[in-house]
What does this fold into?
Amino acid sequence: MIDVHMHIGKLYVGEKPLTPRHLLRFMDANEIEKAILLPIESPEEAHYYVTTEYVMRVARKYPDRFVAGCNVDPRVGTGDNSRILRARLTDYRDRGCKAYGEAMSGLAIDDPALQRVYRICGELRMPVIYHIDGFRNVDEKGFPRFERTLRMFPETVFVGHAQHFWAEISGDVTDDQFSSYPKGPITPGGAMPRLMETFPNLYADLSAGSAYNALTRDLPFGYAFLERFQDRLFFGTDVCRYVQPIDVIPFLKEARDNKRISKLAFEKITRLNALRVFGL
Ligand SMILES: [Zn+2]
It folds into this structure.
C-alpha cells in the first residue's frame, strides 16, 4: 500500500519526535511500501514546524520508502507574493517533491493567498493535500467557497481530508460539526459527494479518524462511496503521534476480504491511484 498522508518530526508539545526508524517499523508492520511525508509550515497546523528541507533530507536518505511533500505558508512575504511562492514551489518540485501539503493555514479556503498557491500547484502538476475543518481552510455549510475554488482551478488536483470535509458527506450537516465526528445514518444530498461527482479535479484521502468515521457511520453508504469513487480516493494514515489508532487499515482490508468492495477498488485506493496521480 502507498500512504499519501504521513507526518514526521516533532509536532506536539510534550511528545517525542516521530523518527524515520519508528515510521519505517510502523510501515513494515502494516504492509505500507511507501509514504508521502507532509511538512508543517503554517502556524495553525501543529505546535512546531517541520520544514520541507528536513522532509526532503529524510526522503533522500530512504528513497524507496519516503516521498517528500512540500509546504510553504501562503502568507510568506508581503503583498502579492506570487513570485516568492512560484520560486519556492518550483524549486521543491524540481528537487523531487510530489505534493503540496498539508495545506492547513487558518484562512478561508478561497483566500487570495491560497488561490495563488492553487494556481501555481496546478501549473506544476502538484496535488494539494487539504485539511478542512472549522479552523483551517474555512468554509460555510455546503462548501460554497470550495465549489467556486474547484471551478476556478480545473487544472489543480485537490485532495480533501479532515472533519469538515467528511462531515459534508451527509446532507444534514450542521455548523457545529465542522470540527467533530458526526454519527448516524447519512442523509442524501451531502455537498461533498456532489462536488466529487461534479469536479473531476477533486479527490479525497482516507487518513485520520474523520474519513473512517464518515465511512463507517452508515456502512452500506460507506462501501458504496468507496466503490463509486474508487478512481479518486487514496489510502492515507495521517500518522502524527506515537499512540494513534489507524482504523482505516483493518476497515479497508475487511471490506476487500468480505467482498464489500471489489479487489480492483481496493488496489486503486491503496496503491494505483497514488502512483498515477502523484506520479510516483
Ligand atoms: Zn495530516
